[in-house]
Amino acid sequence: MPTYNKLVRDLIPTIIEKLGSKPITQILSDEEYMIELKKKSFEELEEYMNTTNKEDALEELADLLEILHALAEANGSSIDEVEMIREKKAVDRGGFKDKIFLVEVLDD
Question: What residue spans define the domains of the chain?
Answer without folding.
Answer: 28-92
